[in-house]
Amino acid sequence: MARRKKIYEGKGKILYEGPEPGTIVQYFKDDATAFNAQKKDVIDGKGVLNNRLSEFFMTGLNNIGVPTHFIRRLNMREQLVRSCEIIPLEIIVRNYAAGSLSTRLGIEEGTPLPRPIVEYCYKDDKLGDPLVTEEHIAAFGWASQQDMDDILSLSLRVNDFLSGVMMAVGIRLVDFKIECGRVYDGDFQRLVVADEISPDSCRLWDIETGQKLDKDVFRRDLGNLTDAYTEVARRLGVLPKNTMQMPKPTLIN
Ligand code: 5GP
């Protein structure tokens, strides 16, 4: 059997060369990291849940005309995506104060923000993904003005979509992070939502109880991470039928 080519291994995912040119296989690991990988663990079933949840969100976005890199899910842990040139920015959209915004500005967690706030971090693990301004982005050429206009419009559309989907199942979308990539169609270049959208990259709080259903459960030792992600998947109706019986999922192919 031919061995496939690994392109990149990150903290939560591995990327392999895809079956056709311009495609990539994205494999979701069970590894959980926080605080720039200072805290690490392996959480059984996390990769399977994130693969399903990211498929759910990306498919929904594709269906409403927000372009993403997602093509199709291949099996329990893998999805086929379009290869794209990742813009080296983490785009964070916040609806309520939490996390680093609360720490930085002294605003109590859970305070509603007067409007969605979009922030940019430069993607560099060695530097701890520092917050940057559009001045830095333009000066260092990480993205063009056209890219930034498209990124802002994409992020706000993702925010509207995700907020609505989560609200419908009793979950508050506090904030989230996305990444964007450039794809080329002939002579034309456009931006797509890339990477993943999952409880690893969002803050999700139960509307009634305020219970955290996202990676803060791991970051802050608040309980069982798989239970939290399973609850999100269950409410959205995307729970793989046999997740509970298979604590250590195996690859289908
Ligand atoms: P904060 O800046 O408050 O730590 O994070 C804001 C939002 O972006 C949270 O939903 C958090 O999960 C997400 N986020 C920030 N940095 C990263 C990152 O490096 N990886 C992932 N998966 N999510 C991130």
Regarding CATH, which class of the largest domain?
Alpha Beta
How many structural domains in the coordinates? 2
The Rg value, from CA coordinates, equals: 18 Å
Might you state the CATH topology name of the largest domain? D-amino Acid Aminotransferase, Chain A, domain 1
pLDDT < 50 stretches: none
Ligand catalogue: guanosine-5'-monophosphate
Order of helices and strands: EEEEEHEEEEHEEHHEEEHH
Profile the largest sheet. Answer: 7 strands, antiparallel
Assigned CATH architecture of the largest domain: 2-Layer Sandwich
Average pLDDT level:
94
Query: What name goes with the CATH superfamily of the largest domain?
Result: ATP-grasp fold, B domain
Polypeptide structure, described:
It holds the Pfam family SAICAR_synt. Keywords: ATP-binding, Ligase, Nucleotide-binding, Purine biosynthesis. Belongs to the SAICAR synthetase family. Its EC number is 6.3.2.6. This is Phosphoribosylaminoimidazole-succinocarboxamide synthase. This protein is an alpha+beta fold and 253 residues long. The protein folds into two domains: 6-82, Phosphorylase Kinase, domain 1 (2-Layer Sandwich); 85-236, D-amino Acid Aminotransferase, Chain A, domain 1 (2-Layer Sandwich), CATH 3.30.470.20. 28% of the residues lie in helices and 32% in strands. The protein has six helices and 14 strands. The strands form three sheets. Strands 8, 9, 10, 11, 12, 13 and 14 form a seven-stranded antiparallel beta sheet that branches. It has a five-stranded antiparallel beta sheet with strand order 1-2-3-7-6, covered by helices on one side. A two-stranded antiparallel sheet has the order 4-5. A hairpin with a 5-residue loop joins strand 2 and strand 3 (23-28). The radius of gyration is 18 Å and the shape is globular. The model has no long low-confidence stretch (mean pLDDT 94). The structure holds guanosine-5'-monophosphate (5GP). Guanosine-5'-monophosphate is lined by residues 90, 92, 98-101, 129, 175-177, 200-203, 215.
